[in-house]
Known about the structure:
homodimer; alpha/beta; Nucleotidyltransferase, domain 5; 2 domains; five-stranded mixed beta sheet; 38% helix
Amino acid sequence: MEKYAFGVDVGGTTIKIGLFDMQGEIETKWEVQTRTESHGENILPDIAKSILSKCKELGIDKDDVLGIGIGVPGPVDVDGIVYGAVNLGWGTIDIPGAMFELTEMRTMAGNDANVAALGEMWKGGGIGHKDIIAVTLGTGVGGGIIVNGEILAGAVGAAGEIGHIHVEDQEKEKCGCGNKGCLEQFTSATGIVKLAKRHLKETDAPSILREGAITAKSVFDAVKEKDPMAIEIAEEFGEYLGKALATVAAVVNPEIFVIGGGVSKAGPVLLTFIEKNFKKHVFKGCKDTEFALATLGNDAGINGAVRMIMN
Amino acid sequence: MEKYAFGVDVGGTTIKIGLFDMQGEIETKWEVQTRTESHGENILPDIAKSILSKCKELGIDKDDVLGIGIGVPGPVDVDGIVYGAVNLGWGTIDIPGAMFELTEMRTMAGNDANVAALGEMWKGGGIGHKDIIAVTLGTGVGGGIIVNGEILAGAVGAAGEIGHIHVEDQEKEKCGCGNKGCLEQFTSATGIVKLAKRHLKETDAPSILREGAITAKSVFDAVKEKDPMAIEIAEEFGEYLGKALATVAAVVNPEIFVIGGGVSKAGPVLLTFIEKNFKKHVFKGCKDTEFALATLGNDAGINGAVRMIMN
Lengths: 311, 311
């Protein structure tokens, strides 16, 4: 009789692991270091070792374990095959196959953004919905699409890559992906800083932002202080993101967008700029799409990962 | 033991019905008129009557029938509820429920573009694939998304509405949906004519297109004659559509786009303009997405409809 399941969130520096009971409650969680050297060949063995030693420590038998869910930063298809993960040094790996060999436990794998979306649907900002899109505004812009309660992985695990929607023909700088004019270049934490610097350079108008270092946080703090230039920057951010999400809505028609990542710490004010511009461009059949902030923070990954295996 | 299933494609003027065997072969197909008066209240009874009389004619017992699949021109959710169909005069209708009452046969319903996509996957341009997007370039621009062999309907049946992706901030004319700058305004049969007329007005340059009526067909016929202005128009068409499909690919990551509808009669030359621009903007993880022409024509609907029920 299964009593437990493990949720694993593999990041570029640390691996988060959670032990969950069958009601989906976290019994305990911990972290191990991500060893990316030697093409990341230690990563899965390290996870396996950590899980097996936790089982031993707590007297958990293999038969007590339903399985392991793992989220990784790379494209993963429906069978759990990852097609390379640059930050981990990985090429193509059959994660369920490799983990079964190491642990004899059933394993499922997904892309980290998709898995986090599943977590937010289950326990976070998307609770009560089964068609959600989670948008992560961090160093980059990630997306996770859940259709009818399940991850939309795509043919080669590249679904939900909304950070790389082309939104600006005039952009001259290259995105990390090699293209020019990607959504990520304007609406990630670094993208917002770039927008802010360009605005500050264009005029001599006074702004709180001329003092101190510019971050996504300082821009939205200045918006809350009604700084006109910060509001202009937030408008431009909202125009890019709202318009792109209107496109995404016409394609996938979710019930709700859940906005997370570091930038979302700006709070509800962030949503007002996105929603206003979303409504301006969205197909009328999708006009009632809701918006909410993500609530699970760093725990979205382990929660979504374990949800995969408990589904 | 079930031996047959019916596929129904409801259009604004005619309803196509096909009787299929369990191998998916069409035994016979016929059409009945779509009676849209009185809010289309006769449409489902007419379909039921036609199916029941065909059964009687051929000596088919109800127990011999697996069920009925129906495609309709409106948003349909996963349960077969249609949320209004303007061309039929319909409001919200529970199609499976209503049809069961009329025929005592199990019925499934889907949006016509989604159902046609399923047909193209099964027997047409998308054969051999399970993640396809069918794009219909006709009077309007429709889209049908198939993920892992199943229709992606969306929260309120509005998924795949790629004709209403916003692609042009400068457009001053309104789209049928009420927005301005939708993909449909530039890449439908009528959109291509509009692009052509604008090009012809801009200069006095000679062109085959200055003789006779302009249609999507005459534009691509002129492209085949290497008419420079026609090529410019096709390039603009390809830029709008290729860029939009690059966005769609980053969201859903299909294996293949299958291009159908009246405009697709232009043949393979059409794909060259779309693919070139697609590759220019697409996220590298989706760069191997294939393109093909639809092959089923008007039979895509009845085939996809019956496939729903046979799945």
